[in-house]
């Protein structure tokens, strides 16, 4: 069967018409986002003023969350339009850090520009279509409406005579041609502020990322050194001392062998005990490097085992459908182990809660207790060690523990999947 192919100009016109219709849809979508951006401006000003007056700190994070949602909606629109736009790197955890972060500043600038320019572009595209539809049909209905509504060109041009009314289709044709050719261009202009401000800024975010990676690399080396020192101390103070003891005992036993075989036997028994102790200590050191419980029972089993040993009743929720790299699992395990040891030792809590879940390729670990609060990473080595260990894997750890509680330790680790 032969299919009739459209002629070249017809195909060109058809695809251009499709493009104009598509652009109108995207312009309207961008206009909607622009209206939300416009509404965000006064809210942003109020939040900024309250924050400046030091009474609105609590409002900063929800506002930044909204800003992120809105800018993500625009990023999605730009991607659907066929643009490549990467998510910017965000640094900082505290509201102040996030609010002053260069990504946020650029997003605020986008809100201001898109709130005006994005809405304007959408309005132009939609007005051209509206004028086309309204003015084309004007000669048919202008006599049926009151003199106040006898207007062409979106209400700008009064037309109260037959000859004037015939201007309607002419204006409609011009508006249609303008819409046909200009709407793709207007959508391209409408995308510009987002393309310039919502991606990673050229250089700045990259340098923030480099700073962050340099810091975590230093932390990795640091954590590595601390870990080596800990293993060295454990071997030196434990197993090595015991083995030295064994050597001394065997020497003593040899000397006693001729003189007093019974005494030599006693000393050898003592040497055997010491050897067993050395072995137990070696086993403990090995376990502290990569706990075998992780190997045997996986992260879920291992975390449940620590929670079962916790002095405070502890609920565990684990949602990790796949296995993470061994280093990540081991770090998560040590995080939960240290946090629950702290809960038993310091918190005086009635209940504790451990949640481990894998979310978008990142392992989220949360340990919370309803105790007295006041955890301070600078007051001991446990929490500081956790933070260093997590940062060494390019993860993130936050301790929140106001006096009076509750205490929450949140850790996020990239899982590499
Ligand atoms: N869950 C908690 N509830 C209340 N206070 C806590 C909690 N966790 C830690 N703390 C406080 O924070 C301090 C620091 O904790 P960290 O784990 O760093 O050290 P530590 O437990 O005292 O010693 P270690 O180095 O053996 O872990 C603790 O001394 C304790 O006062
Ligand atoms: Mg501790």
UniProtKB/TrEMBL annotation:
GO molecular function, one term: ATP binding
Segments traversing the membrane: 26-53, 108-131, 165-182
Catalytic reaction equation(s): ATP + protein L-histidine = ADP + protein N-phospho-L-histidine
Keyword Membrane recorded: yes
Lineage: superkingdom: Bacteria
Key word Cell wall biogenesis/degradation present: no
A GO CC term attached to the entry: membrane
Keywords: ATP-binding, Kinase, Membrane, Nucleotide-binding, Phosphoprotein, Transferase, Transmembrane, Transmembrane helix, Two-component regulatory system
The Histidine kinase/HSP90-like ATPase domain, residue ranges: 327-417
E.C. numbers: 2.7.13.3
UniProt cross-references to SUPFAM superfamilies, sorted A to Z: ATPase domain of HSP90 chaperone/DNA topoisomerase II/histidine kinase
Pfam family, one: Sensor
UniProt-listed Gene3D superfamilies: 1.20.5.1930, Histidine kinase-like ATPase, C-terminal domain (3.30.565.10)
Stretches assigned to coiled coil: none
EC class: transferase
Protein name as catalogued: histidine kinase
Organism: Mumia zhuanghuii
């Amino acid at each position: 069967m032969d299919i009739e192919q459209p002629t070249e100009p017809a195909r060109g016109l058809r695809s251009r018409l499709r493009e104009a219709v598509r652009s109108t849809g995207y312009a309207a979508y961008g206009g909607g986002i622009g209206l939300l951006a416009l509404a965000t401006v006064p809210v942003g000003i109020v939040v900024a003023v309250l924050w400046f007056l030091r009474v609105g700190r609590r409002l900063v994070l929800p506002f930044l969350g909204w800003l992120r949602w809105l800018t993500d909606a625009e990023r999605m629109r730009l991607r659907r339009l066929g643009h490549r736009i990467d998510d910017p790197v965000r640094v900082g955890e505290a509201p102040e850090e996030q609010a002053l972060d260069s990504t946020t500043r650029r997003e605020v600038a986008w809100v201001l520009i898109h709130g005006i320019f994005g809405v304007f572009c959408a309005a132009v595209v939609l007005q051209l279509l509206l004028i086309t539809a309204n003015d084309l049909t004007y000669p048919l209905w202008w006599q049926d409406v009151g003199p106040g509504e006898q207007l062409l060109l979106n209400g700008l041009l009064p037309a109260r005579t037959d000859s004037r009314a015939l201007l309607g289709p002419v204006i409609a044709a011009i508006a249609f041609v303008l819409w046909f050719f200009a709407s793709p261009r207007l959508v391209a202009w409408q995308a510009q502020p987002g393309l310039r401000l919502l991606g990673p800024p050229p250089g700045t975010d990259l340098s923030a990322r480099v700073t962050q990676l340099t810091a975590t690399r230093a932390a990795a080396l640091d954590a590595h050194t601390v870990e080596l020192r800990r293993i060295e101390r454990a071997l030196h103070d434990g197993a090595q001392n015991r083995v030295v003891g064994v050597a001394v005992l065997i020497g003593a036993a040899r000397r006693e062998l001729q003189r007093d075989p019974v005494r030599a036997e006693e000393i050898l028994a003592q040497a055997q005990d010491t050897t067993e102790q050395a072995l137990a200590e070696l086993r403990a050191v090995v376990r502290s490097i990569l706990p075998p419980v992780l190997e045997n029972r996986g992260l879920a089993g291992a975390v449940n085992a620590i929670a079962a040993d916790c002095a405070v009743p502890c609920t565990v929720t684990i949602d990790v459908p796949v296995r993470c790299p061994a280093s990540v699992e081991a770090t998560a395990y040590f995080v939960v182990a240290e946090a629950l040891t702290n809960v038993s030792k310091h918190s005086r809590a009635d209940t504790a809660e451990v949640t481990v879940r894998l979310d978008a390729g990142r392992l989220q670990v949360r340990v919370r207790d309803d105790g007295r609060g006041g955890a301070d990473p600078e007051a001991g080595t446990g929490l500081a060690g956790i933070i260093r260990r997590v940062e060494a894997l390019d993860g993130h750890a936050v301790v929140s523990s106001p006096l009076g509680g509750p205490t929450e330790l949140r850790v996020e680790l990239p899982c590499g999947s």
